[in-house]
Amino acid sequence: MSLFAFLGTLEIGLVYGLVALGVYLTFRVLDFPDLTVDGSFPMGGAVAATAIVAGVNPWLATGLAVLVGGMCGLVTAFLAVRCGILHLLASILTMIAAFSINIRIMGRPNMALLGEPTIFTAFDNMGLDPLYSHLGVIFLLVLFAAFFVTRLLASDFGLALRATGVNGRMVSAQGGSIGFYTYLGLALSNGLVGFSGALFAQSNSFADVTSGVGTIVVGLAAVILGQTLIPGRRIWVAVVAVIVGSILYRLAVGFALSSGMFGMQASDLNLVTAVLVAIALIAPKMKGKMRLKAVQARRAK
Amino acid sequence: MIHLEDIGVTFNANTILENQALRGISLTVAERQFVTVIGSNGAGKSTLLGAVSGETPISRGRVEIDEVEVTKWPVHRRARYAARVFQNPLAGTCATLTIEENMALAYGRGKRRGWRLALSAKRRRLFQDRIAILGLGLEDRLGDSIGLLSGGQRQAVSLVMATLSDSRLLLLDEHTAALDPRMAAFILKLTNTVVEEFALTVMMVTHSMKDALACGDRTVMLHQGKIVLDVAGEERDQLDVPQLLEMFSKVRGEELADDSLLLG
Fold first, then answer.
1. What CA–CA distance (Å, rounded) separates A34 from A46?
2. Do B53 and A155 touch (CB under 8 A)?
3. How many A/B residue pairs have CB atoms within 8 Å?
4. How many of the other CB atoms lie within 10 Å of CB of B62?
5. Å from B111 to nearest chain A CA?
6. Is B76 within 8 Å of A172 when comparing Cβ atoms?
7. What confidence tier does B255 reach under pLDDT thresholds 50, 70, 90?
8. Would you call A4 helix, strand, or coil by DSSP?
9. Which residues in chain B are closer than 8 Å to A159, comparing Cβ atoms?
């Protein structure tokens, strides 16, 4: 892998690290499998791109993307909490609706940002090498998001959020509204994903409605890969783990594709990812069973 | 203070499974009173407690806690006024959080949960002091996951957690039923200590007639969703378990086949 490809992979790994953070919040913390991200990721890109083309400051446009992403989460939470729709189904409904809305936002299925100002423009004008400066900006933004999530989960609010996914009855008994934490947890998660979508659009100079396909699986792969390689109960360890997981996932994919291993082509990516996630989900159970069998065999002797 | 007025609870209304769990219960528990609630299975003991905590939706009646009408309030809103300890030790604590994190959650009951750090040095000291009264050595294990503790230890921590917020009402739902006899006795003793020290008003549901008479200062017996016995003061002091049992069989209109079930 060339240095250019390596840095590019690192960059995209970091951008998707935000998706991994969002998926960690829903899938692990809230125990709410949320597929909304497949819609909120391209929506973040669509909102940021449309706003930038309309002349809005790129930082403001990115903030807008975060807000709109968060709103996607609120819609899913509304369907699940208020209307009592099964969480998985509620998130699929939002995801499907988001596809149409994204095309409405942009007025077409995709939008180029070539020549438009982005959050990177100021750094490019300073004469920095874009190869490194873009990576640096994204690294700092992801670092900020990671710190924010870690600190939030250590707060009174975050503690209740964490308990909501494990023992909702207890949270109610301690005066916390499960509905409230589900709303805010989903908004937060999808806000991060919208942020990721906005960064993705600006670093790649385009926004596309189809860019959201499989976002949840990529996020899950990062969370599972990261937490398997870097286990730990502490919050900051988990947060670092899922971001590292996202980078490692991208590196593995980039390596496999660039080396032409097993004659793979770019379109095989989704299949490979799905298989990887399935293995990662099955592996811990198999490990448990094998250990049990080993113990039984020892006892039998 | 709890004030219940003509509480009715019907499960599966208008179906073949219709079950009137509570049929017009009125009960006032005064400030600092310790009421024990007994009754056979299905008499409506836990349903009554659920009507107070908000976990059981009531079909008619009125619930007041500390002179505030809470009839339409959801569980989490009522929680500001009442602490609860459940029968199942797993239900009252969050297994994946540490002991101190569970205590911090309970500390926030009735308060706004914001951006402040859940575990400050000051709070840790408070938690350490409070948990030390258990004498279980847990004050040195605050960072351990609460899932590592035994059921009895978790119930003990739940009781301490109930005192971390400044509500004055404690609802106990057969909180010793899932424990071994030695641990159950310890938890009951601890309950009395805590109630005394924090001047709490208590409603305790129990299936043990012995505990019902040994604890508190008033005993209410439920049968088929109605209050059939309500004793306090001298009358209650003179009651012993066989007498209570006799009353119990009288209201049921039948001799109990096996006393040991209830004497235990």
1. 20
2. no
3. 91
4. 14
5. 8
6. yes
7. very low
8. helix
9. 97, 101, 104-105, 108, 113, 118
Amino acid identity at B34: F
pLDDT less than 50: residues of chain A: none
Shortest CA distance to B195 belongs to which of B102, B121, B92, B85? B85
Tell me the C-alpha distance between A257 and B247, whole Å.
81
Closest CA–CA distance from residue A301 to any residue of chain B (Å): 31
Instruction: Compare all CA atoms of chain A with the CA of B106 and give the residue at the minimum distance.
Output: A174
> Is B14 in contact with B22 (CB distance < 8 Å)?
no
Cβ of A235 under 8 Å from any chain B Cβ? no
**B8 bridge partner residues:** B23, B60
Query: ipTM beyond 0.85?
Result: yes
B36: Cβ contacts below 8 Å, ≥ 6 apart: B204, B205, B206, B211, B212, B213, B215, B216, B218, B219, B220
Model confidence, pTM = 0.90
Residues A209, A42: contact at Cβ < 8 Å?
yes
What single-letter DSSP state applies at residue A266? Answer: G
SS3 A263: helix
Q: What is the pLDDT of residues A138-181, one digit of tens each?
A: 999 999 999 999 999 999 999 999 999 999 999 999 999 999 99
Question: Hey, is the C-beta of A10 within 8 angstroms of any chain B C-beta?
Answer: no
Quickly count: other Cβ atoms within 10 Å of residue B60's Cβ: 13
Interface contact A29, partner B, CB < 8 A: no
